[in-house]
Amino acid sequence: MAPAQGARTVPVWDRFVRVFHWTTVGLFAIVFVTDRVQWIHQPLAYVILVLVLARIVWGFVGSRHARFADFVHRPRTVRAYLEDLRHGRARRYLGHNPAGGAMVVAILFMLVFVTASGWLCVTPEFLHVEWMHHVHHISAHLLLLMIFAHVAGVLWSSVLHRENLVRAMITGRKSAQLEAEGGTTAGPGVGARGPAV
Description:
Elements: E1 9-11, H1 15-33, H2 38-61, H3 68-71, H4 75-86, H5 98-121, H6 130-161, H7 165-171, E2 173-175
Antiparallel strand pairs: 1-2
Helix pairs in contact: 1-2, 2-5, 5-6
């Protein structure tokens, strides 16, 4: 799945995106398993929230492929991409594909929701409100399922396009094979890229 030896690569994921991605992965893992160790759980959860807010800002002012305008698509474009992905004919995107972009937005939203609900759980108003603690607990587990789905999508796309996407998120670089076409290739039955919303 690695680019052919000697193949030219181009920068795709800037340093902020990569540091945010892997730092958030590590912090979420620690926060998830320390829910009963509040002196670890709470401060790290707030660090995640700060990182997410910074990533949202970066989605408007960051490098090309870090911007929401580059990977946020209309729902019908995401559905069409998922259908093509299911049939193994999805086009390759230099940045996030439509499904990956939708998942990025969903995960960012859920990270904010989980941390906000966790904060409410320790406020005087909700400290002993059982349903709020259930909301926090369930949303955290839903986020974990979303992360598993995201990983599965990354692995499937890596196999489909013979490209190591995990390595790309570490190095920040991907094969330049399709750069001249704006980072995509048209597969059979695939329409033009939908406009961002």
